[in-house]
Amino acid sequence: MSSGKLIDILLLGSGGREDALAWRLRQSPSCGRLLAAPGNPGIARWAQCVAIDPCSPADVVTLARSANIDLVVVGPEGPLVAGVADACRAAGIAVFGPNAAAAELEGSKGFTKDLCAAAVIPTASYVRANGDQEALAELSRFSLPLVVKADGLAAGKGVTVAETRAEAEAAIADIGNAPLVIEEFLHGEEASLFALVDGEVAVPLASAQDHKRVGDGDTGPNTGGMGAYSPARVLTPELQARAMAEIVLPTARAMVAMGRPFSGVLYAGLMLTDEGPKLIEYNVRFGDPECEAIMPRIEGDLAELLLAVATGRLAEIAPPELSDETAITVVVAAEGYPGTPRKGCVIDGIEAAEQVEGVTVFQAGTARHGSGALLAAGGRVLAITARGPTLAEARARAYRATDAIDFADGFCRRDIGWRELEREGT
Q1: Where is the ATP-grasp domain (predicted)?
Q2: Domain holding 174: CATH number?
């Protein structure tokens, strides 16, 4: 803050993304007190955890006021869609994250597709359907493969790439009599671009590439993400500039024109096609596990940067600086994920893993037993992140750390970063 006062921060969330944010915020020179709600055992290393519902606007405002919080940072999408940012702003509390009306960019796939059509933003052709019968009637308009998406929030798992009509029909049946979107399948390579947005001002923060499928070789069902690395060099400076000019900035301007100005981080999932970058979807918060790979690369004062976005001063401060190093995150999930994960397994060896150079182990689905033991308590349990001068070195460090952890029910993909390594010939 310009007065030199330290920024007292309340971070909302309880996953690996929030552990990474808390870890990085704690290192920020301007960060004062750091609270997290509800937090997890990993976040408790950096912040004071408070057991409130982060999706309750009233509870968040009450806590922020009682603790004299200067900035609320919203991690997951749930509180945003629930209107937590609206409530904070109405109470005069600075908040990093969009209002509920702007969060519809993630909350409704159909809303975003219609915005793209109106603003001539490159994306896949599509049709919206209000239920299974309407959707089935529209299938013949698309060649195979095609994509079926639930319209609303689905924790990163509401998307099916259907290779056959039967698979498309099954995906529609799974969504049931609810709104959905059917899209053409885009050919190319995916990459993620994270931009800080403050009304009509938008600056790129970082690129990343994640790995959605549960199994090596991109096999098995989709998940919330089994690993990521940053930067995604396939998104070259030229392609990133095009994505900002043709996708992110027109979106920011369109949202302002609609009376829904966006403030926060806008995560553009891109397909890099032969015609250039096209938008797959937006998220209105940091990705998970992309956040875990981006935070170690951010240099400078993250707390001041997020406060500048929250208070409409993004255009007044220096753009974010990132390390030239590569960071990679390997997610360790519990047996059964992405179905029903097995919970309760004891986890040991995190300290040993963090002895590997450049490694931080972020915690996602963990809980602390009364005995003090760390237990698996979710699907994605750990996010093991390593920095290195090259992707190959960072990956070697990450897997060396992963192998130091004792988690009998845990599994991970062993090929995170494979596309980039193939391009590099390593």
Answers
A1: 113-311
A2: 3.30.1490.20
Q: Does the pTM of the predicted model rise above 0.90?
A: yes
Instruction: Please say which residue of 272, 295, 322 terminates a domain.
Output: 322
Same domain, 193 and 308: yes
* Number of structural domains found in the chain: 4
Structural domain for 159, as ranges: 125-184
Residue 241 near residue 111, CB atoms below 8 Å? no
- Out of 265, 291, 322, a domain closes at 322
Mean pLDDT per segment of 10 residues, for the chain of length 426 residues? 80 98 98 98 98 98 98 96 96 98 94 97 97 91 95 74 95 91 96 97 97 95 94 97 98 98 98 97 96 97 97 94 97 97 97 98 96 96 98 98 98 96 84
